[in-house]
Write a structure and sequence with these properties.
mainly alpha; flat; cell membrane; transmembrane; UPF0060
């Protein structure tokens, strides 16, 4: 369930940040900011749902999932296909996030 929460949180964060990017860099309407702010609030709420005792650890593990989701956004929304180096780096990040999430604590 944690991975699912992280994936949805990553999409919410990327969508929220992209709305600000679109307003600022692509000169879209300021109305783009409203759904972006809602999306960023959803992102924060979702991260708070993760069942990990330390916020820093939850955020660190989330980072790996965020990287993979960002490359998905790059491909699906921006139309730029990730190259093999993007995919290799993303795979390393997923492995790192999994080590943080699945490590036996207190053993």
């Amino acid at each position: 369930m944690t991975y699912l929460i992280y994936i949805v949180a990553a999409l919410a964060e990327i969508a929220g940040c992209f709305s600000i990017w679109a307003w600022w860099r692509l000169e879209k309407s300021p109305l783009w900011l409203a759904p972006g702010l809602v999306s960023l609030a959803l992102f924060g709420f979702l991260l708070a749902l993760v069942d990990i005792s330390a916020a820093g650890r939850a955020y660190a593990a989330y980072g790996g999932i965020y990287i993979a989701a960002s490359l998905g956004w790059l491909w699906l929304v921006e139309g730029v296909r990730p190259d093999r180096w993007d995919l290799a780096g993303s795979a390393l990040c997923i492995v790192g996030a999994s080590v943080i999430l699945l490590a036996p604590r207190g053993a």
